[in-house]
């Protein structure tokens, strides 16, 4: 583009999604979740040598962090770095699931740190009763 100088602009790309997953969280559930992801079958296109699963302490308690690489269409086939954190919502059966992806593998470590910082910054205040109510079985159903 004219006026931007002789050096082409560098575009750094990534994607971040925060989702909520209902999961019965009994004592030891976070550790079991980490074990589940560590032993999970290899996804199509996943580089199993890149998979790292661990527990980390957050201000809200233990969370699971998963890092891996997987082939994806972006719009052409290429490896994508993926970091996910699964953080229990204290006092409920809900997990915050933060997923960060990038096709720029050089950004993998930086985005993993950013994912940790974002999970650490989540504050679960003022919504516990609403989440409990939304996860209650409806009349006539059993759980």
Automatic annotation (TrEMBL):
<protein>
    <submittedName>
        <fullName>Uncharacterized protein</fullName>
    </submittedName>
</protein>
């Amino acid at each position: 583009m004219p006026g931007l100088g002789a050096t082409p602009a560098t575009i750094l790309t990534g994607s971040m999604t925060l989702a909520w997953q209902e999961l019965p969280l009994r004592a030891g559930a976070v550790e079991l979740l980490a074990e589940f992801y560590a032993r999970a079958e290899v996804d199509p296109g996943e580089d199993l040598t890149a998979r790292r699963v661990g527990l980390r302490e957050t201000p809200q308690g233990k969370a699971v962090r998963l890092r891996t690489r997987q082939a994806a269409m972006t719009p052409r086939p290429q490896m994508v770095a993926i970091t996910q954190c699964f953080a229990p919502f204290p006092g409920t059966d809900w997990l915050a699931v933060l997923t960060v992806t990038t096709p720029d593998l050089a950004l993998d470590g930086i985005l993993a740190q950013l994912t940790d910082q974002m999970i650490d910054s989540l504050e679960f205040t003022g919504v516990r009763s609403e989440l409990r109510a939304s996860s209650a079985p409806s009349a006539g159903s059993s759980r």
